[in-house]
Amino acid sequence: MKVKTLAIAAITVSLITACAGTPEGGSKTAANQKGKICKYEKTTGSHIGTKICRTPEQIQREKENAQQAMKTLTRGQTKSGQ
User: How far apart are CA 11 and CA 18, in angstroms?
Assistant: First the structure.
């Protein structure tokens, strides 16, 4: 009985991991015809990626916003952590 349960568990795990692989071609980033860059991103708590498409301008703006947020959060802190 244990062997049968173990075999079923192994098959189930292999099927689930096969479905959560990278998209066709093995690339996690692709450009589409409209000039958008599509990327598979994993959300917190999930192993399955979600396809997110953005224009280069949106990517640059998000990068700048993240850098500004980091500057705001770290403003006034010393390198020693005090």
Answer: 11
